[in-house]
Amino acid sequence: MKIALPLHRGVISAHFSKAQQFMIYDTQLGELRRFINPAVRTSGCRGKAELLTQLAASGIDGVVVRHIGERMFIKLRQRNLAVWHCHQKTAPKELNLAELTTLNSEETRQSRRQQACRMGVSPNRLQPLSSQVELTQINGGKRIND
Question: Dinitrogenase iron-molybdenum cofactor biosynthesis domain: from which residue to which, for each copy (predicted)?
Answer without folding.
Answer: 10-88
